[in-house]
């Protein structure tokens, strides 16, 4: 192995480690992919995870300056096909290998910047934020899944966006307390955290249900090498969604709803059986 390949492999291992440290459920889903798809998805997750950390974690630093530097370094890495930031070096490799368009990356970074100065959203801002923070991440992954098959990619864009939107809206409900208490954010348009009630929660859940239904029609059309992994993520979030639906609005405001690791493993095994029997 030459020195450049060694450096690139080391950078990709960094993104894999980041994924495993930050998301057990996402890591579990990636393990269900064919091996050739795992590395690129780790590289995408490492990139989006670190960008999100800038706006959510480093409260004693100038987040705007940090994000501006991260954006500048991202575009330079893509242009030069090299970065001394291991996460960005791994990410640029995926961008070039799978022809991930710059507008997807720009939309994602714009949503991250929105977190720096927006604490509540109208309908249009809400849609823009979800598109940039979640839907385009799904589209980046879809680029990898379709392996440069443009016709397949174009046919799956809509359900991929729906899946990303469903996941993000569930995250908003799950993290409603911490988003409000720690960051002063309420993402759902027209929602007052203090007066959030079951009627408002049910309206949000109906919207999420539609996203889930639209997304599933795309999952069954994915290449078999990745279908199982995406289905694992789908059933995990669907189970989380069901738990949230059973929880009244007052409790959603008081605690973070989660699925424990034991349940995640059961969901993984059930999905594996369905995959083996070709039931989805």
Q: Which structural class is indicated by helix and strand composition?
A: mainly alpha
General shape? globular
Fraction in beta strands: under 5%
How many separate domains? Answer: 1
* Major β-sheet annotation: none
Model regions low in confidence, pLDDT < 50 over at least 5 residues: none
Rg from Cα: 19 Å
> What is the CATH C-level name?
Mainly Alpha
Tell me the distance between the termini: 40 Å
Report on this structure.
- It is built from 13 helices and no strands.
- It is an all-alpha fold and 280 residues long.
- It has one domain: Farnesyl Diphosphate Synthase, CATH 1.10.600.
- α6 runs antiparallel to α7 (123-146) and α8 runs antiparallel to α10 (198-219).
- It is globular and about 60 Å long.
- The mean pLDDT is 92.
Short descriptors:
single chain; 280 residues; mainly alpha; Farnesyl Diphosphate Synthase; globular
Question: Briefly, what is this?
Answer:
By secondary structure, the chain is mostly helical. It has 13 helices and no strands. The radius of gyration is 19 Å and the shape is globular.
Explain the layout of strands and helices.
Layout: H1 3-22, H2 24-31, H3 35-56, H4 63-80, H5 86-97, H6 102-117, H7 123-146, H8 150-174, H9 176-183, H10 198-219, H11 224-245, H12 249-252, H13 261-276
Helix pairs in contact: 1-3, 1-5, 2-11, 3-5, 3-6, 3-7, 4-5, 4-6, 6-7, 7-8, 8-10, 8-11, 10-11, 11-13
